[in-house]
Amino acid sequence: MGKTLLCACEDVSLEEVRRAFAAGHRDLESVKRYTGFGTGPCQGKSCLALVARELLRLGATPGEIAPFTSRPPGQPTPLAALAALDPATLPAGHQGVPPEAPPRRPGPGALPPLPERADVVIIGGGILGLSLAYELARRGRRDVLVLDQAYLNAGASGRNGGGVRAQWSTSDMVTLALRSLALCRRFAVDLGINVWFRPGGYLFLAPDGAQVARLERNAELHARHGMRTRLLSPEQALEVVPHLDPSRFVAASWNPDDGVVFPWPFLWGYATQAEAMGVKVRTFSRVTGLRRSGDRLTHVETDRGAVACQLVVNAAGAWSKQVAALAGVATPNRPTRHEILVGEPLEPFLDPLVSLLGTGLYFSQSQRGELVGGMGDPDEPEGIVLGSSLRFLARFARASTRLMPRLGGVKVVRQWAGCYDVTPDNNPILGPAGYANFHQLHGFVGHGFMMAPAMAELYADWLTGRGKHELFDRFSLARFARPGAAVGEDFIIG
Predict the structure, then answer these.
(1) What is the pLDDT of residues 381-404, one digit of tens each?
(2) Domains located in the chain, CATH noted
(3) Which helix (H) or strand (E) holds 173?
C-alpha cells in the first residue's frame, strides 16, 4: 500500500504527521523533532508548507504554525569551502550569533492540565528526567509528573551527536557507561522504538606524548573492567579508518563496543512507556518557583499553576543552576554552548566515531550515512545560547579536513547548538541539596545522554527503597566543600 510523502528528503509521510498531532505535537518545531521532517538538505523548503497545511486542517491554530528556525548554512556547502575561512577573523563567543526562535506554546486548550498534586515532580523532560520517570514507574512509583519548559527534545538530549562510549578515565564513569551501552543494545526490544544503535566503536587519536600517556592509563583501567580497548599505532589506526592523515597523530585507542545512536527516539521511547504506566509528562510548563515549609519543598510553581508534591528532582540540565536557585540552593555548574553539524548522506565510509584529543574535534557517520560532528571552542563563554556561528563551521572544517582530507568534498547540510552542563570536576551533582526532598540529577557535562539509562536505574532503586549506591554520596553537592572528595573525570571531548 502506498503512502503520501510530505517530506521527500526524510521520507516523512502524511500519516506520520497525523500521528504526531494525535500525540499532542501541534507546533512545527515539536512535529519536526517527532517525525524528522525539514531536517534534510532542503531545510523544509519543500515540505514546511505541506506540513503546516495539514496541521491547520487537523485543528492547530495559526499562532502554533510559526515556521521553525532554519539552520545555517543556507544551502549545502562543502567543508573545503568553509575550511578556507580564517577562524581568527570570526567573532568568538556569543557575538554575532544568530538567535534561535523561542519555542511557541500551543494554543488554549491544546495542553492537558497539570495535576493538583503528584508524589514526585521531575523538573526537566530530557533523557535524565524521562528515564528516571520510566524507571520509577517500573518499580511501582507511578504518581510522577515530568515538567519541561518546551517540547521534548528541545534541550541537550535532542541536540547531541548520539555517541555512547565506555572509554572513560574513572572507574565510576566506565561502570555507568558499560551498563548504559548494554541498555542501548536492548532499547528497541525493551521500549519498543528503534534508536538506530550502531556499534562502530570510538577511535581516539593522540597527537602527542602527553595524550598517549592518557590513553595508556585509560587502557589499563579498561582492561580491569573487561573492556576490549586496544592501543594502536598510526598504521594500525589506518586499518580501522583508512582515510586518516597519519602525520596528525602518534597513537590511537580503539574500543569496537562503543557506538552511536539517534538521540530523538530515546526520549520518545522513555516518555511513551512512562506515560503508559501512569506517569504524566507536561511540556510547555515552565517552573517559576519552589514553595517551601521548614526543611522541605511543598509545591512546584509553574506558569500554568502550582503542583503539591512529596519529592522534587532537578533534572533540568543547562537550566538546573537556575532551578536550584529558585529554592535558594547555589550550585557550581555552568552551561556552555557546544555546536554541531551534519552533512549530506553518503555511502558508508566511516565505522567508528573519530576524536582528535586536545582539540575537541569529533565526527562519525550516522546509520543513514550522514557525517555528524562537533568541536569545542576554548573561547566559548558561560551562558545558555543555542544560536549557531560561522566561527564553528570554519574551525571544524579546518580541523576535520586536515585530519581526513577526503572530507573536503562533504557538504554541510545544517548546524545547531546545545549546552553542556559543566561542573568543576566534570562529574554530576546527585542527591538532596538544601532540602531533604530536593534531589539533584544534573552536571553531567556532555555525557549525560550516554549515562542516563544506567543512572536512572540506580536513582530509581534508591528512591523506591531498593538501596543507595555509593555514587550518591561521592557525587553530592557537599563534595565541593571538601577538596579531593571525588576524582575528576578528564576524558571530555566536544
Answers:
(1) 999 999 999 999 999 999 999 999
(2) 5-68 (1.10.10)
(3) helix 171-191
